[in-house]
Amino acid sequence: CQVIVHDVNELTEKLFPIVEAMQKHFSAGSGTYYSDSIFFLSVAMHRIMPKEITRIIQVDLDLKYKTNIQDLFDEFDNFPEGAVIGIAREMQPVYRHTFWQYRRENPQTRVGEPPPDGLPGFNSGVLLLNLEAMRQSKLYNQLLEPTVVQKLTEKYHFKGHLGDQDFFTMVGMEHPELFHVLDCTWNRQLCTWWRDHGYSDVFDQYFQCEGEVKIYHGNCNTPIPED
């Protein structure tokens, strides 16, 4: 087993010029903070990792595994043609909220609607990054260009604060074919913040998850069930 440790400052130095332009759209607070770049690591991982690294699983720390992570790695084999990233849906109506203006202007839209037919956005707690596919995808790399990001944020009236998750969500509204959607059991989010903040009537449509949980995600400091 080989372990390679990466220096955060070095990574940030490489990341900053690539993601600087998108930070103002998807970071908390105003302006572009150099240190915030690390929250966009997954977005440009294919540009800063050595070429011989072709696939990476990136996960949050607030997770509890109920299965062998090799089974998650096997999900790479299920990527459809053209997909570059594996990611689960967001399980709260956070993007129903974020896209409120776009939804008001487009009452028939699937944007922000709950599954199975809607586009609730993504949660970046568990990410499968096919670095090789990301490097080769002309479409994905075009979407990193500042002018393209700007255009999409204007189209969707988008202002977020969740870093890479916001970027993937917005891109997924426009180009869902870039993503392999992981089953909710691979990222069973437990946070219920939005149930108590104006969305109790629709909350359960986003929050439900059938099947045996493989990974629990205790987001927003939610306790994870004991075995």
Automatic annotation (TrEMBL):
GO terms for biological process: protein O-linked glycosylation via N-acetyl-galactosamine. Signal peptide: none annotated. GO terms for cellular component: endoplasmic reticulum membrane. Keywords: Transferase. GO terms for molecular function: xylosyl alpha-1,3-xylosyltransferase activity. Gene3D superfamilies: Spore Coat Polysaccharide Biosynthesis Protein SpsA, Chain A (3.90.550.10). InterPro entries: Glyco_trans_8, Nucleotide-diphossugar_trans, XXLT1. This is XXLT1 xylosyltransferase. The lineage of its organism: Eukaryota, Metazoa, Chordata, Craniata, Vertebrata.
